[in-house]
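Researcher: We're teaching a course module on how sequence relates to structure. For the next exercise, students receive a sequence and then see the predicted structure as C-alpha cells, so they can try to spot secondary structure elements on their own. Here is the exercise chain.
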Amino acid sequence: MASKQPIHSGGAQTKEFEINLVAAGLHNPGDPEVAEAVVSTDANATLRVEISASDRDDWQLDVRRVDGSLDIIRSFHDGVSVHDDVIPQWIEHVVDVVGERLERSR
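Model: And here is the predicted structure for the students to work with:
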C-alpha cells in the first residue's frame, strides 16, 4: 500500500497508519489482524482513505469529517464502486480508528 501514489495529485497531504485490529479489540474471526491505511487530503479538504490488508483486495473510501469521526461518502472495492451495505465490518473499524487518530493529531 505504501508504494502506491495517493489518489490526489498536486498539493495533497498524506498520512499513513498501521492498524492492529487485534490490539484495538476490533478483530473478528476471518478478519485480517492488521491493516494499513493511507489518508490523502487535497486542497479542497477532500479525504480519501485507501485500505489494504494481507490477502485482501484494496478498498478506497471517500470520506468526510462529521462531529469528530469519518463518514463514508463513496466506496470502491478493488477499483469498483460498491454500495455501503457490502463494506465489511473490519473496513468500517479501520475507518473509525483512522478518524480517531486524525482527530487526536489536530
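Model: If you want an answer key for the exercise: The chain has one domain: 13-104. The radius of gyration is 13 Å.
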